[in-house]
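Hi D.,

Good news: the full-assembly prediction came through. Inputs first.
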Amino acid sequence: MVDILHRTGIKSSPAEVYAALTSTEGLAGWWTTDTQGKGNDLGGVLKFRFRAGGFDMKVLELDPGKRVLWEVVDGPAEWIGTHVVWDLDQADDYTIVLFKHQGWAEPVEFMHHCSTKWATYLMSLKSLIETGKGAPHPDDVMIDNWD
Amino acid sequence: MVDILHRTGIKSSPAEVYAALTSTEGLAGWWTTDTQGKGNDLGGVLKFRFRAGGFDMKVLELDPGKRVLWEVVDGPAEWIGTHVVWDLDQADDYTIVLFKHQGWAEPVEFMHHCSTKWATYLMSLKSLIETGKGAPHPDDVMIDNWD
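Then the structure:
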């Protein structure tokens, strides 16, 4: 099993970052405008849609201001059963986001793509909170011939 | 051992991407303006400097238009002995860059940071080649409280 790892620091409170990871409005502001479901509903399913498909995430853990954990229950075969983990902490004037997309079976080329794409979405999350404007799909950053 | 993985697609030829990874002018255009050494000199050492230190990379493999491999010989303790690998291929109108920063001893928090930061530098490489303007240090994208 292999993992995608990222870290960003956002000049904001953990509560504000947590809200952007658990509210439909927040998620739609940095990941995809086509977001359905309740991110603050433990055991519920979030549906994220993009130009070429999407992901359904079951909300497995919610610790306000500290942690959000999703399990991928539908989407690309390589994603199903993987976990997306958001751990929040404070340092200096920042909320530190430690991100993990855990449990890939193999380090396939698609995983390389997703690692880079996640980084652009983390920058979108940071921008949304710090400036009020993110870059969610369909206005996301194009990184290669796949998306 | 754990690895950082990324993928980008650049609307350009493999030769042009290879040049940006092996010429001092190319490297200075997307990674850091403070680049010394010869990237096309097998066995030579490239010195990359940033606001908070830098990295010395020994050029271990050069396959024009296909592959560049560096070994980190000086820099942060976590980086020493790791390998940075650039594999190039063609797909559609793109040169595909498969990037690996291989051989981290542990998935420490600094590795999360470096994963995100590498993604922003890959976007800088893409931008340099597609538009003529990259975002090398000291004009790099700030991702968190560390850099």
